[in-house]
Write the structure tokens for this entry.
Amino acid sequence: MEHLDLNPQVTASLKKANIKSVEDILAYSVVDLQRVAHLSIPDVQHLQKAAAVRLQRDKNVITALQLYMDKASFPSQHQKLSLGCSLLNNFLRGGIPIIGITELAGESSAGKTQIALQLCLSVQYSAEYGGLGAGAVYICTEDSFPSKRLQQLIKFQHKLRTDVPADVIRSIHFGDSIYIEHMADIDTLTDCITKKLPILFRRSPVRLIVIDSIAALFRCEFTAKDAALKAKHLQSLGAKLHHLSTIFTAPVFCINQVTDTMKDADTALNLMGLQDKKVQPALGISWSNQLLMRLMVSRTQLMAPLPHTGCILRNMEVIFAPHIPPSTCYYTVDLEGVKGIDAT
């Protein structure tokens, strides 16, 4: 602080406010610095500029363009977790980001749990095959874990993942690396995220968190009059999940339910990219703000084309993401797993 070019009165005010470093200065907004340190707007602007110049001189600062271009130095910004299907990977530009929360929302029978299970298997492959070489945590909040379907998917991995050599598939013990938890209330879920998961991540090679579903507990414990308290809990939960994801470079995949849209909610729907939807993801805009990427899936009334005879055609849509424009693709679910379908 002594090295900044500041008026002595400003320095004294910062010390009184217990602001001790350049990083502290830049963490505050203009309004907060005014309030905490009792400074004028010109003083705050000069202070922030001096702090930014000092930080840039003292540390190796990079630009957003460098971050985008230098993929080798910043793998967590560019690596994705494969969905186990080349068409779906192409649609999502590699898969789901490995840092941040990805939400998959949709009505019942749209295939949400099938996609989550497939991710739990995909994460166990090495990076060469789109995985992270680690296990997964699957947190159930409503239904029991679909172990029978998981075993079925494991059995047919050699048919779904034709891009992976058969000996590599045989060498992976898929069922041994999926840790299952059942949660009955929000307090138990919070305790699991803040206490159990950090210990598990440090002791075992785990790199994926699946929550199925995020809405179930909040719908049970909060009524319409508890909106403010519900929003506070959602923000807290989102912050804890982001912290885990960042510290351990682990993607968080949350399944969400949907609700019917209301005609008087046009502004909120527009903010969430859902203006023309008949349904919208549950939990509202407080939860939407915690997400890096939101996907929605739905089940059509059409049958999938050859060679997917007998399968229902389903639709996956990107609602928002930092690296993908709003777009859609078709997929289906069969005995072997979830498969994208060429739009042509």
User: Anything to note?
Assistant: Residues 52 and 176 are 49 Å apart (CA to CA). The chain has two domains: 8-58, 72-341. The domain at 72-341 is CATH 3.40.50.300 (Rossmann fold). The radius of gyration is 23 Å.
